[in-house]
Write a structure and sequence with these properties.
By secondary structure, this protein is an all-alpha fold. It has a single domain, classed as Orthogonal Bundle (Helicase, Ruva Protein, domain 3), CATH 1.10.8. It contains nine helices and no strands. Helix 3 runs antiparallel to helix 5 and helix 5 runs parallel beside helix 8. It is elongated, with a radius of gyration of 22 Å. The N and C termini lie far apart (about 65 Å).
């Protein structure tokens, strides 16, 4: 063996340590906690869409002009925010379930913008908007913050999470169970 300087040895040890490190972020993104977050997010998307298409539409028609304008603005922001969150959740689920590779997901991820948003109108005006609408807006902001935090943590840990590989047999059994459950 040749002579090594300390920096080469420490880099090799650091590389070995990094290779053997368990990423808790990636485990979280492939866990039941992610499934819960996914369910919560998709339920919020469905509930908000049903509200905006039904009772929300009726409520917005009864608002005075300044509130109607605030409602329209916040409604567009709410819809955009929820679609971005849903896109991220669906992309991560596709990676977790082996439907996409990490490389495919990363090439699609550039379309998703998890930019932190605030309420566009001032607080006083926001408080005058319909209560259920305000609830959806605030829930969506919290959900977006959680997803953005997970996304940033995953980016720092090396990209989208990849679920541990399951055996081919287990995967086929799950598909059969899902098919017969319908």
């Amino acid at each position: 063996m040749g002579r090594h300087d300390g920096s080469t040895q420490s880099r090799s040890a650091a590389d070995e340590c990094a290779a053997n490190t368990v990423s808790f972020v990636h485990r979280l993104a492939a866990s039941n906690a992610f499934k819960s977050l996914f369910s919560e997010g998709m339920t919020l998307v469905e509930d908000a869409a049903a509200y905006l298409d039904g009772p929300g539409r009726e409520e917005s028609r009864q608002l005075p002009r300044p509130l109607a304008l605030a409602y329209a603005t916040e409604s567009m922001r709410l819809t955009t925010r929820l679609m971005q969150v849903a896109s991220w959740l669906l992309l991560q689920r596709a990676v977790n379930e082996g439907e996409m590779t990490t490389a495919q997901a990363l090439s699609e991820k550039h379309r998703i913008r998890l930019v932190e948003q605030e309420i566009a109108c001032d607080a006083e005006l926001f408080e005058k908007l319909p209560p259920l609408f305000r609830q959806f807006s605030l829930k969506s902001l919290r959900l977006q913050a959680r997803v953005a935090h997970l996304d940033q943590s995953m980016a720092a840990a090396g990209g989208l999470a990849v679920a541990p590989r399951r055996s081919a047999v287990a995967s086929q059994v799950e598909r059969l169970q899902a098919a017969f459950a319908r």
